[in-house]
């Protein structure tokens, strides 16, 4: 007795299985590719956020140094921010926080209403090549009415707003600090 195999039922099954496995492997590969691209974007945004934060912090410290050294003082006279602020010094602006009022001016390509930290003070170290532009700041002079302050002499505390930028134009960090000069 002779056994005959039915080859017609088995023909092409290996090809179909191989194609299904190839499609599955391709889908796994594409998923890994897109996942790694997304992780790379997140890492870049995180780095840009850190650079922007460092730049904003540098702007605050630079402005504090300008006030502490007497380069910027209320004796210079105040600018009518948010219209002009070449030195960054603004009178107390009662209609809203400086960070909101000057936001579009700080982000502008050629700001006229906020001061830019000079490149001699901001090269960013290793961060400089990763920053879109130099950090910027505005200083708001607020009459100092601290308890026990001498009312015969007018003194000020300063609210400093600093803007830092990442390499991506969408990454901007805004920081504010209050600075009271040593008496």
TrEMBL record:
<keyword id="KW-0812">Transmembrane</keyword>
<dbReference type="Pfam" id="PF14341">
    <property type="entry name" value="PilX_N"/>
</dbReference>
<keyword id="KW-0472">Membrane</keyword>
<dbReference type="InterPro" id="IPR025746">
    <property type="entry name" value="PilX_N_dom"/>
</dbReference>
<protein>
    <submittedName>
        <fullName>Type IV fimbrial biogenesis protein PilX</fullName>
    </submittedName>
</protein>
<dbReference type="Pfam" id="PF13681">
    <property type="entry name" value="PilX"/>
</dbReference>
<feature type="domain" description="Type 4 fimbrial biogenesis protein PilX N-terminal">
    <location>
        <begin position="11"/>
        <end position="61"/>
    </location>
</feature>
<dbReference type="InterPro" id="IPR025205">
    <property type="entry name" value="PilX/PilW_C"/>
</dbReference>
<feature type="transmembrane region" description="Helical">
    <location>
        <begin position="12"/>
        <end position="34"/>
    </location>
</feature>
<feature type="domain" description="PilX/PilW C-terminal">
    <location>
        <begin position="116"/>
        <end position="180"/>
    </location>
</feature>
<keyword id="KW-1133">Transmembrane helix</keyword>
């Amino acid at each position: 007795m002779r056994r005959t195999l039915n080859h017609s039922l088995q023909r092409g099954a290996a090809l179909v299985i191989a194609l299904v496995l190839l499609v599955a492997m391709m889908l796994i590969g594409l998923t890994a590719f897109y996942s790694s691209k997304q992780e790379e974007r997140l890492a870049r945004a995180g780095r840009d956020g850190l650079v922007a934060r460092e730049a904003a912090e540098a702007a605050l410290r630079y402005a504090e140094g300008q006030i502490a050294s007497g380069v910027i003082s209320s004796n210079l006279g105040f600018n009518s921010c948010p219209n002009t602020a070449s030195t960054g010094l603004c009178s107390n602006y009662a209609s809203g926080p400086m960070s909101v009022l000057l936001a579009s001016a700080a982000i502008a390509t050629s700001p006229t209403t906020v001061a830019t930290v000079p490149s001699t003070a901001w090269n960013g170290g290793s961060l400089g090549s990763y920053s879109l532009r130099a950090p910027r700041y505005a200083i708001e002079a607020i009459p100092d009415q601290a308890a026990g302050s001498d009312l015969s002499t007018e003194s000020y505390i300063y609210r400093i707003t600093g803007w830092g930028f990442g390499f991506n134009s969408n990454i901007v960090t805004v920081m504010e600090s209050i600075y009271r000069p040593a008496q």
